[in-house]
Amino acid sequence: xxxxxxxxxxxxxxxxxxxxxxxxxxxxxxxxxxxxxxxxxxxxxxxxxxxxxxxxxxxxxxxxxxxxxxxxxxxxxxxxxxxxxxxxxxxxxxxxxxxxxxxxxxxxxxxxxxxxxxxxxxxxxxxxxxxxxxxxxxxxxxxxxxxxxxxxxxxxxxxxxxxxxxxxxxxxxxxxxxxxxxxxxxxxxxxxxxxxxxxxxxxxxxxxxxxxxxxxxxxxxxxxxxxxxxxxxxxxxxxxxxxxxxxxxxxxxxxxxxxxxxxxxxxxxxxxxxxxxxxxxxxxxxxxxxxxxxxxxxxxxxxxxxxxxxxxxxxxxxxxxxxxxxxxxxxxxxxxxxxxxxxxxxxx
Amino acid sequence: xxxxxxxxxxxxxxxxxxxxxxxxxxxxxxxxxxxxxxxxxxxxxxxxxxxxxxxxxxxxxxxxxxxxxxxxxxxxxxxxxxxxxxxxxxxxxxxxxxxxxxxxxxxxxxxxxxxxxxxxxxxxxxxxxxxxxxxxxxxxxxxxxxxxxxxxxxxxxxxxxxxxxxxxxxxxxxxxxxxxxxxxxxxxxxxxxxxxxxxxxxxxxxxxxxxxxxxxxxxxxxxxxxxxxxxxxxxxxxxxxxxxxxxxxxxxxxx
Lengths: 348, 255
Fold this sequence. Notes:
The structure holds 2 protein chains of 2 kinds. Chain A folds into 3 domains: 2-226, Rossmann fold; 238-302, Alpha-Beta Plaits; 306-347, no CATH class. Chain A contains 12 helices and 14 strands. Chain A has helices at residues 46-53, 75-81, 102-112, 117-130, 146-158, 176-193, 204-210, 228-236, 248-256, 278-291, 306-314, 338-347; strands spanning 2-14, 19-31, 35-39, 61-66, 69-70, 82-85, 164-168, 196-201, 213-218, 221-226, 238-244, 261-267, 270-275, 296-302. In chain A, helix 3 packs parallel to helix 5. The longest helix of chain A is centred in the middle third of the chain and has 18 residues, at 176-193. The radius of gyration of chain A is 24 Å and the shape is elongated. Chain B has one domain. Chain B has 12 helices and no strands. The two termini of chain B are 25 Å apart. The A-B interface holds A 54-58, 75-76, 79-80, 82, 84, 86, 88, 91-100, 104, 108-109, 111-114, 156 and B 2, 5, 9, 13, 16-17, 20-21, 86-91, 93-100, 253-254.
């Protein structure tokens, strides 16, 4: 049974002169126990969607069920069952008070979820251990390091053992070491407690390394959903680069005739083939060339990155967060992989 | 009663955080006494009869209720600043996604501010007595009651306006523009009867004008007259209207 099910979720802001569609129509489903990444360029509607799903913002259209409670009909029921860890950068921070002690924040949070005093103390102590904050209970929040503070904020979202936790940009602003440490904690949430995790992120490697499934939003509409691998395959195909000892043109013609090969290009490195399902295509390609008596001197398979998926779907790159659609040929037959990234970089 | 539980929860948290700032405690104790100590003695040197009586005690009976209102006015309208930084720290949002009553986010804070203000008011009265104030105990209690009503109303409005503006730069000038004329028109420092007729007419729009008249009447030993009825009605009305406005802002589904 899905733990989040949203249909046509939309948010419109009206000011005197114009109407702003922050989110036009988000359809998404998240299953229990999944780690789902919600990706989109700046201004795509990520945070607005998250705020609607967590009852901080009332949708102007659409409906949703979150953790078994109706978003519009029973917002308090939703709040009781979800954990939320706000973004720690930008307009508002992660929700901890500089002057409070770490243990006080955890116990207050437990009381906010109406846990009894004994339960609150027990949960607070447990979470201090689980999130590597042991011994920091009596420290003031303002004395914590960035990573420690972020882990405290995550602990606050887990005090009431919610079946689902929403993380808004969980690792933004952290150094690489704290980030991979936090990834471990997030993975453990799912493996040890079975918690469903819904997170927004800017980092492609985060979505790639952490998420079972990625949902992409652009211009307020969900445009794609799937495992990182599925998305990459679907959008761009894989790239096989090979060198043959014989005449390259002959090999190219031979390979282009194969149904599994979508596109062939000759380059300095050799032949660049775009194929579906690279691992399965490799043996077939080898057989074809072998049958024609050509010897392969080198062969490599490379997967497109999530950024290629992004460029194709949204016309924008997540990496530089600038619109790069102008002058860029797009579509599924586009050259995927490394070259595309290099091209994107050279345009900057 | 989950609402009371939630209010007390927010109250305890806010009080704990406040007491953690030693500088605050010192400032909170000194601030209300500044006018009493540095300005009060001037009044007692004014010609007898200025305050409707002959003795210096009459001057103090005039001045201390004024200072109490001033304390209430300034003490509660400035509380909004704190909620802007709390909002920026993400604390308001953190509370709003929990099942805690969203109204308690306001009421718990207001309760703390009322308690702070009552303690400051008691201190002010006690030091006033040391300077020569002579007033019946019931009158002091009546004036504390007024302070509570004023604080409930103004603190609620201050929090909701601050949360609406979300910017100290916008909030500060707004507060000054509203509070300073209100204070001047209430006749806190000097009797408004000293002024020209137009000023006395303009002063009728300030609700604090009525509250302070009722308080002074009580300090003079008059508990049951039209001034008192007017004062109680204005103070209670102010508290209720402001509390309702504040509640609306905090119960709004999108903040």
